[in-house]
Amino acid sequence: MNANEEHRGLDRRSFLVSAGIVSTSLKDVAFANTWEERKALSQGFETDSLGPIVDTNVYLFGWPFRKLPDDTPEKLVTTLRRYGVVEAWAGSLEGVFHSDMRGVNERLVEECSRWPDLLRPCGTIHPGLPDWEEDFRQCVDDWGIKILRLFPNYHGYSLDGPEVEGLLHMAAQRRVILQIVVEMEDSRTQPHLFRVPPVNLSRLERLLEKIPEVTIMLLNAHRICSPTQLRRWMESGRVFVDLSMLEGVGGIERVVETVPVERVCFGSFLPLFYFAAAHLKLVESRLSPAVRQAVASENARRLLEQPGSG
Predict the structure, then answer these.
(1) What angle do CA 301, 150, 205 make, to 5 degrees?
(2) Of the ranges 32-41, 158-167, 215-224, 239-248, which one carries the lowest mean pLDDT score?
(3) Which residues contact 131 (CB under 8 A, 6 or more apart)?
Protein backbone atom coordinates (compact mmCIF):
# COMPACT_ATOMS: atom_id res chain seq x y z
CA MET A 1 0.00 0.00 0.00
CA ASN A 2 1.47 3.33 -1.06
CA ALA A 3 2.18 5.84 1.69
CA ASN A 4 0.00 8.40 -0.05
CA GLU A 5 -2.95 6.11 -0.68
CA GLU A 6 -5.93 5.63 1.60
CA HIS A 7 -6.28 2.45 3.64
CA ARG A 8 -9.13 1.03 1.59
CA GLY A 9 -10.98 -1.79 3.30
CA LEU A 10 -9.28 -1.12 6.63
CA ASP A 11 -11.53 0.22 9.36
CA ARG A 12 -10.34 2.93 11.75
CA ARG A 13 -9.99 0.64 14.74
CA SER A 14 -7.95 -1.95 12.83
CA PHE A 15 -5.67 0.71 11.46
CA LEU A 16 -5.07 2.31 14.88
CA VAL A 17 -4.36 -1.07 16.42
CA SER A 18 -1.88 -1.97 13.67
CA ALA A 19 -0.24 1.44 13.40
CA GLY A 20 -0.03 2.86 16.86
CA ILE A 21 -0.04 1.08 20.16
CA VAL A 22 2.46 -1.63 20.94
CA SER A 23 3.50 -3.06 24.25
CA THR A 24 6.54 -1.77 26.12
CA SER A 25 7.93 -5.28 25.69
CA LEU A 26 8.49 -4.53 22.02
CA LYS A 27 10.59 -1.50 22.91
CA ASP A 28 12.63 -3.66 25.27
CA VAL A 29 13.19 -6.15 22.47
CA ALA A 30 14.39 -3.49 20.07
CA PHE A 31 17.05 -2.30 22.50
CA ALA A 32 18.29 -5.73 23.65
CA ASN A 33 21.96 -6.36 22.94
CA THR A 34 21.88 -9.84 21.41
CA TRP A 35 19.46 -11.83 19.27
CA GLU A 36 18.97 -14.32 22.10
CA GLU A 37 17.98 -11.51 24.47
CA ARG A 38 15.61 -10.02 21.90
CA LYS A 39 13.94 -13.35 21.22
CA ALA A 40 13.56 -14.12 24.93
CA LEU A 41 11.99 -10.74 25.58
CA SER A 42 9.54 -11.28 22.73
CA GLN A 43 7.95 -14.31 24.36
CA GLY A 44 4.47 -13.71 25.72
CA PHE A 45 3.45 -10.92 23.34
CA GLU A 46 -0.27 -10.44 22.81
CA THR A 47 -1.75 -12.43 19.94
CA ASP A 48 -1.70 -9.52 17.46
CA SER A 49 2.06 -9.04 17.89
CA LEU A 50 4.66 -10.66 15.65
CA GLY A 51 7.49 -10.66 18.15
CA PRO A 52 10.93 -9.59 16.88
CA ILE A 53 11.00 -8.51 13.22
CA VAL A 54 13.82 -8.41 10.68
CA ASP A 55 12.83 -5.95 7.96
CA THR A 56 14.69 -6.75 4.73
CA ASN A 57 13.49 -3.75 2.71
CA VAL A 58 13.90 -0.22 4.08
CA TYR A 59 15.59 2.93 2.78
CA LEU A 60 17.28 6.00 4.19
CA PHE A 61 17.12 9.56 2.86
CA GLY A 62 14.50 11.29 0.72
CA TRP A 63 12.49 10.39 -2.37
CA PRO A 64 12.63 13.24 -4.91
CA PHE A 65 9.02 13.04 -6.14
CA ARG A 66 7.04 13.42 -2.93
CA LYS A 67 7.35 14.05 0.78
CA LEU A 68 7.34 10.86 2.86
CA PRO A 69 6.29 10.53 6.52
CA ASP A 70 9.48 8.73 7.66
CA ASP A 71 12.01 10.28 5.31
CA THR A 72 14.60 11.15 7.98
CA PRO A 73 16.69 8.46 9.68
CA GLU A 74 15.43 9.55 13.08
CA LYS A 75 11.76 9.20 12.10
CA LEU A 76 12.42 5.89 10.37
CA VAL A 77 14.24 4.45 13.36
CA THR A 78 11.42 5.57 15.67
CA THR A 79 8.86 3.73 13.52
CA LEU A 80 10.98 0.59 13.36
CA ARG A 81 11.49 0.56 17.13
CA ARG A 82 7.77 1.07 17.74
CA TYR A 83 6.91 -2.09 15.85
CA GLY A 84 9.59 -4.26 17.43
CA VAL A 85 12.00 -4.38 14.49
CA VAL A 86 15.33 -5.67 15.77
CA GLU A 87 17.20 -5.43 12.48
CA ALA A 88 16.51 -3.49 9.28
CA TRP A 89 18.35 -3.97 5.98
CA ALA A 90 18.72 -0.38 4.84
CA GLY A 91 19.48 0.78 1.32
CA SER A 92 19.96 4.32 0.06
CA LEU A 93 17.38 6.21 -1.99
CA GLU A 94 20.31 8.31 -3.21
CA GLY A 95 21.63 5.18 -4.88
CA VAL A 96 18.61 5.09 -7.19
CA PHE A 97 19.55 8.38 -8.87
CA HIS A 98 23.16 9.31 -8.08
CA SER A 99 26.07 8.19 -10.25
CA ASP A 100 28.73 8.39 -7.52
CA MET A 101 28.19 5.03 -5.85
CA ARG A 102 31.21 5.45 -3.59
CA GLY A 103 29.74 8.62 -2.10
CA VAL A 104 26.29 7.04 -1.86
CA ASN A 105 27.60 4.03 0.04
CA GLU A 106 29.89 6.06 2.29
CA ARG A 107 26.96 8.23 3.43
CA LEU A 108 24.80 5.16 3.99
CA VAL A 109 27.44 3.38 6.08
CA GLU A 110 28.04 6.53 8.13
CA GLU A 111 24.33 7.01 8.82
CA CYS A 112 23.74 3.35 9.70
CA SER A 113 26.66 3.49 12.15
CA ARG A 114 24.53 5.78 14.32
CA TRP A 115 22.21 2.82 15.02
CA PRO A 116 24.51 -0.22 14.68
CA ASP A 117 22.16 -2.44 16.70
CA LEU A 118 19.31 -1.82 14.26
CA LEU A 119 20.37 -0.69 10.77
CA ARG A 120 22.36 -2.99 8.49
CA PRO A 121 23.63 -1.10 5.41
CA CYS A 122 22.87 -2.53 1.96
CA GLY A 123 25.31 -1.04 -0.52
CA THR A 124 24.26 -0.02 -4.03
CA ILE A 125 26.12 -1.47 -7.02
CA HIS A 126 25.70 -0.15 -10.57
CA PRO A 127 27.43 -2.62 -12.92
CA GLY A 128 26.92 -0.23 -15.82
CA LEU A 129 29.39 2.29 -14.36
CA PRO A 130 33.16 2.20 -14.86
CA ASP A 131 35.11 0.53 -12.05
CA TRP A 132 32.01 -0.93 -10.41
CA GLU A 133 34.20 -3.81 -9.26
CA GLU A 134 36.00 -1.38 -6.94
CA ASP A 135 32.63 -0.32 -5.48
CA PHE A 136 31.91 -4.00 -4.83
CA ARG A 137 35.32 -4.53 -3.21
CA GLN A 138 34.98 -1.46 -1.02
CA CYS A 139 31.51 -2.45 0.19
CA VAL A 140 32.48 -6.04 0.96
CA ASP A 141 36.09 -5.71 2.11
CA ASP A 142 36.33 -2.23 3.64
CA TRP A 143 32.87 -1.96 5.19
CA GLY A 144 31.94 -5.62 5.68
CA ILE A 145 28.64 -5.24 3.82
CA LYS A 146 26.86 -8.56 3.23
CA ILE A 147 23.89 -7.33 1.17
CA LEU A 148 24.05 -5.35 -2.08
CA ARG A 149 21.06 -3.76 -3.79
CA LEU A 150 20.60 -3.48 -7.57
CA PHE A 151 18.29 -1.15 -9.54
CA PRO A 152 18.51 -2.38 -13.17
CA ASN A 153 15.53 -0.39 -14.44
CA TYR A 154 16.55 2.94 -12.90
CA HIS A 155 20.22 2.46 -13.79
CA GLY A 156 19.45 1.49 -17.37
CA TYR A 157 20.85 -2.01 -17.77
CA SER A 158 19.27 -5.41 -18.33
CA LEU A 159 20.02 -8.75 -16.73
CA ASP A 160 21.42 -9.91 -20.09
CA GLY A 161 24.67 -7.95 -19.83
CA PRO A 162 28.05 -9.60 -19.18
CA GLU A 163 28.65 -7.21 -16.27
CA VAL A 164 25.59 -8.59 -14.48
CA GLU A 165 26.80 -12.16 -14.91
CA GLY A 166 30.21 -11.08 -13.61
CA LEU A 167 28.58 -9.43 -10.61
CA LEU A 168 26.63 -12.59 -9.81
CA HIS A 169 29.83 -14.64 -9.96
CA MET A 170 31.56 -12.22 -7.59
CA ALA A 171 28.62 -12.26 -5.19
CA ALA A 172 28.52 -16.06 -5.19
CA GLN A 173 32.25 -16.31 -4.52
CA ARG A 174 32.12 -13.78 -1.68
CA ARG A 175 28.84 -15.12 -0.27
CA VAL A 176 27.10 -11.76 -0.69
CA ILE A 177 23.32 -11.48 -0.97
CA LEU A 178 22.08 -9.56 -4.01
CA GLN A 179 18.74 -7.77 -3.72
CA ILE A 180 17.19 -6.98 -7.11
CA VAL A 181 14.62 -4.20 -6.82
CA VAL A 182 11.92 -5.09 -9.35
CA GLU A 183 10.19 -1.71 -9.16
CA MET A 184 10.06 1.32 -6.90
CA GLU A 185 6.63 2.70 -7.71
CA ASP A 186 3.36 1.68 -9.27
CA SER A 187 3.20 3.26 -12.72
CA ARG A 188 0.07 5.16 -11.65
CA THR A 189 2.05 7.17 -9.07
CA GLN A 190 5.07 7.95 -11.28
CA PRO A 191 5.56 11.47 -12.65
CA HIS A 192 4.48 11.82 -16.27
CA LEU A 193 8.01 12.63 -17.47
CA PHE A 194 9.68 9.95 -15.36
CA ARG A 195 8.15 6.59 -16.23
CA VAL A 196 10.26 3.60 -15.22
CA PRO A 197 8.99 0.13 -16.15
CA PRO A 198 9.58 -2.89 -13.87
CA VAL A 199 12.72 -4.97 -14.30
CA ASN A 200 12.47 -7.65 -16.99
CA LEU A 201 13.22 -10.87 -15.12
CA SER A 202 12.99 -13.22 -18.10
CA ARG A 203 16.77 -13.70 -18.03
CA LEU A 204 16.83 -14.64 -14.35
CA GLU A 205 16.23 -18.37 -14.74
CA ARG A 206 19.11 -18.75 -17.18
CA LEU A 207 21.43 -16.86 -14.86
CA LEU A 208 20.44 -19.09 -11.96
CA GLU A 209 21.18 -22.17 -14.04
CA LYS A 210 24.68 -20.84 -14.78
CA ILE A 211 25.36 -19.58 -11.23
CA PRO A 212 23.16 -21.67 -8.92
CA GLU A 213 25.17 -20.79 -5.81
CA VAL A 214 24.33 -17.06 -5.95
CA THR A 215 21.77 -15.79 -3.42
CA ILE A 216 19.17 -13.37 -4.79
CA MET A 217 16.29 -11.64 -3.06
CA LEU A 218 13.61 -10.02 -5.20
CA LEU A 219 12.20 -6.85 -3.65
CA ASN A 220 8.83 -5.34 -4.59
CA ALA A 221 8.17 -8.27 -6.93
CA HIS A 222 4.58 -9.34 -6.26
CA ARG A 223 2.81 -6.96 -8.65
CA ILE A 224 4.92 -8.36 -11.49
CA CYS A 225 5.66 -11.96 -10.53
CA SER A 226 3.08 -14.64 -9.83
CA PRO A 227 3.66 -17.24 -7.11
CA THR A 228 4.12 -19.81 -9.89
CA GLN A 229 6.95 -17.78 -11.44
CA LEU A 230 8.55 -17.29 -8.06
CA ARG A 231 8.41 -21.03 -7.38
CA ARG A 232 10.09 -21.80 -10.71
CA TRP A 233 12.94 -19.43 -9.94
CA MET A 234 13.26 -20.78 -6.42
CA GLU A 235 13.54 -24.29 -7.84
CA SER A 236 16.32 -23.04 -10.14
CA GLY A 237 18.43 -21.42 -7.44
CA ARG A 238 18.64 -19.59 -4.14
CA VAL A 239 15.88 -17.02 -4.68
CA PHE A 240 14.02 -15.27 -1.88
CA VAL A 241 11.26 -12.67 -1.88
CA ASP A 242 9.99 -9.99 0.50
CA LEU A 243 6.37 -9.08 1.31
CA SER A 244 6.14 -5.53 0.00
CA MET A 245 3.72 -4.91 -2.87
CA LEU A 246 1.88 -8.10 -1.91
CA GLU A 247 -1.77 -7.06 -1.81
CA GLY A 248 -5.17 -8.66 -1.41
CA VAL A 249 -6.93 -10.57 1.34
CA GLY A 250 -5.01 -13.73 2.20
CA GLY A 251 -2.09 -12.68 0.01
CA ILE A 252 0.58 -14.26 2.18
CA GLU A 253 -1.37 -17.49 2.46
CA ARG A 254 -1.62 -17.72 -1.33
CA VAL A 255 2.11 -17.20 -1.72
CA VAL A 256 3.22 -19.75 0.87
CA GLU A 257 0.83 -22.31 -0.58
CA THR A 258 2.91 -22.15 -3.77
CA VAL A 259 6.49 -21.28 -2.76
CA PRO A 260 8.63 -22.62 0.09
CA VAL A 261 7.76 -20.57 3.16
CA GLU A 262 11.44 -20.45 4.16
CA ARG A 263 12.08 -18.29 1.07
CA VAL A 264 9.66 -15.54 2.15
CA CYS A 265 10.94 -12.66 4.31
CA PHE A 266 9.36 -9.64 5.91
CA GLY A 267 9.84 -6.37 4.02
CA SER A 268 8.00 -3.10 4.67
CA PHE A 269 9.43 -0.84 1.94
CA LEU A 270 9.61 1.95 4.51
CA PRO A 271 9.48 4.95 4.03
CA LEU A 272 7.78 4.74 0.61
CA PHE A 273 5.08 2.48 2.09
CA TYR A 274 3.51 2.57 5.52
CA PHE A 275 5.05 0.05 7.88
CA ALA A 276 1.56 -0.71 9.18
CA ALA A 277 0.58 -2.18 5.81
CA ALA A 278 3.26 -4.88 5.87
CA HIS A 279 2.74 -5.52 9.58
CA LEU A 280 -1.00 -6.01 9.10
CA LYS A 281 -0.45 -8.57 6.34
CA LEU A 282 1.14 -10.94 8.85
CA VAL A 283 -0.99 -10.01 11.86
CA GLU A 284 -4.22 -10.79 10.01
CA SER A 285 -2.91 -13.85 8.18
CA ARG A 286 -4.15 -17.35 8.99
CA LEU A 287 -0.61 -18.68 9.25
CA SER A 288 0.47 -20.59 12.31
CA PRO A 289 2.51 -18.64 14.90
CA ALA A 290 5.62 -20.59 13.93
CA VAL A 291 5.24 -19.75 10.24
CA ARG A 292 4.48 -16.11 10.99
CA GLN A 293 7.63 -15.83 13.08
CA ALA A 294 9.66 -17.55 10.36
CA VAL A 295 8.51 -14.91 7.86
CA ALA A 296 8.87 -12.07 10.37
CA SER A 297 12.48 -12.78 11.30
CA GLU A 298 13.82 -16.33 11.27
CA ASN A 299 14.08 -16.75 7.49
CA ALA A 300 16.09 -13.54 7.10
CA ARG A 301 18.37 -14.45 9.99
CA ARG A 302 19.14 -17.87 8.54
CA LEU A 303 19.68 -16.35 5.12
CA LEU A 304 22.17 -13.84 6.48
CA GLU A 305 24.01 -16.35 8.64
CA GLN A 306 24.34 -19.02 5.92
CA PRO A 307 23.94 -17.32 2.52
CA GLY A 308 25.75 -20.11 0.73
CA SER A 309 23.72 -23.06 1.98
CA GLY A 310 20.25 -24.48 1.57
Answers:
(1) 80
(2) 32-41
(3) none
Helix (H) or strand (E) holding 87: strand 85-92
Q: What is the dihedral of CA 50, 53, 57, 60, to 10 degrees?
A: 120
State the Cα torsion 188-267-208-234 to the nearest 10°. Answer: -100
Give alpha helix (H) positions in 20-149: 24-31, 35-42, 73-82, 94-97, 101-112, 132-137
pLDDT in tens, 3-21: 444 334 444 334 444 444 3
Q: How many residues does the chain have?
A: 310
Average per-residue pLDDT in the chain?
84
Alpha helices in the chain (DSSP H): 12-19, 24-31, 35-42, 73-82, 94-97, 101-112, 132-137, 152-155, 162-174, 204-210, 227-236, 251-258, 275-283, 289-293, 299-305
> HEC string of 127-152?
CCCCCHHHHHHHHHHHCCCCEEEECH
- Per-residue model confidence as pLDDT tens digits over 242-254: 999 988 767 899 8
Using CA atoms, how far residue 242 sits from 59, 138, 221, in Å, is 14, 26, 8
Question: What does the alpha-carbon distance between residue 29 and residue 39 come to, in Å, rounded to a whole number?
Answer: 7
Please state, in angstroms and rounded to a whole number, the distance separating the CA atoms of residues 42 and 278: 19
Residue 249 pLDDT: 67
